[in-house]
Design brief:
The chain is mostly helical and 250 residues long. It has helices spanning 33-49, 81-87, 91-112, 115-153, 155-160, 165-202, 209-213, 215-249, and strands spanning 13-17, 20-25, 58-62, 66-71, 74-80. The longest helix is centred in the middle third of the chain and has 39 residues, at 115-153.
Length: 250
């Protein structure tokens, strides 16, 4: 990477290893921040994958224009004065902070890929899968029981308070609205259970950890759409409920 001055107006990019952000870096016009961050992350992952390189070999070498972080002769990144100036600390201090974070990342990288850790993660993922299947099965049976109970106890009463054919149709609409509300609530609960399951399982393994951390953002938009749809339906449901109550009162 270049060892010259970095442009403070350039946006920053995170250096991410196994879904964990170590720090953010800036770039120059010819070497954008995203490209610089990706190259640094790749070099850190390459050193972490080579268990013959001890973590203790990670050092900081001071040069006239940069502080060079390397492990067993493998250069990882250069910290220049512009980096330190933007962070408000001296260059050696920032380089030492980066060294500590990279050392922790290498140790975590190797620990998460040990056989015992992976087998434990697989067992936890299997248990979570069985738990989700059981929850969805019980939820489906509970939904059927609730619908059957409502059908048996309350649907005849809704029909009995109607006096004309047009009002019978409206009662059917109300009943349909109740069923749709129950279905929407059950679907939302199923989505939440599936989300927590995926979030838990994806975070168990280093290869899917980044996807797990971004899962909330990926599901936010469809959940927001579902919520807006439910809000748009609520006024109609409230109107039908009020209409049924007024009809019963009259």
């Amino acid at each position: 990477p270049p060892s010259g001055e970095l442009d403070p107006d350039q946006p920053t990019a995170p250096v991410v290893v196994d879904g964990v952000t170590l720090f953010r870096v800036r770039g120059v016009a010819a070497y954008p921040a995203e490209q610089r961050a990706a190259a640094i992350a790749d070099r850190i992952a390459a050193v972490a994958s080579d268990r013959t390189i001890p973590v203790e070999s990670l050092t900081v070498r001071e040069a006239p224009l940069a502080s060079v972080l390397a492990a067993a002769g493998n250069q990882l990144l250069q910290v220049v004065d512009a980096d330190a100036g933007l962070e408000g600390v001296s260059r050696p201090v920032l380089a030492d902070i980066y060294r500590g974070r990279i050392a922790d990342a290498i140790g975590r990288f190797r620990h998460d890929r040990e056989s015992a850790v992976l087998w434990r993660g697989a067992a936890q993922a299997l248990a979570a899968t069985l738990a989700l299947a059981l929850v969805l099965w019980l939820g489906r049976r509970l939904l059927r029981l609730i619908r059957a109970t409502l059908e048996r106890r309350y649907r005849p009463r809704i029909r009995n308070v109607q006096f004309q054919a047009i009002e019978i149709v409206r009662a059917e609409h109300l009943w349909l609205g109740v069923h749709r509300t129950l279905g929407a609530a059950a679907g939302l609960l199923a989505l939440l259970a599936t989300y927590f399951y995926l979030d838990y399982v994806l975070l168990l393994f280093p290869w899917t950890r980044a996807l797990g951390k971004g899962l909330a953002a990926a599901l936010l938009e469809p959940l927001a759409t579902l919520g807006l749809g439910a809000l748009r339906f609520l006024p109609d449901l409230v109107f039908l409920v009020i209409l049924a109550l007024l009809t019963r009162y009259l």
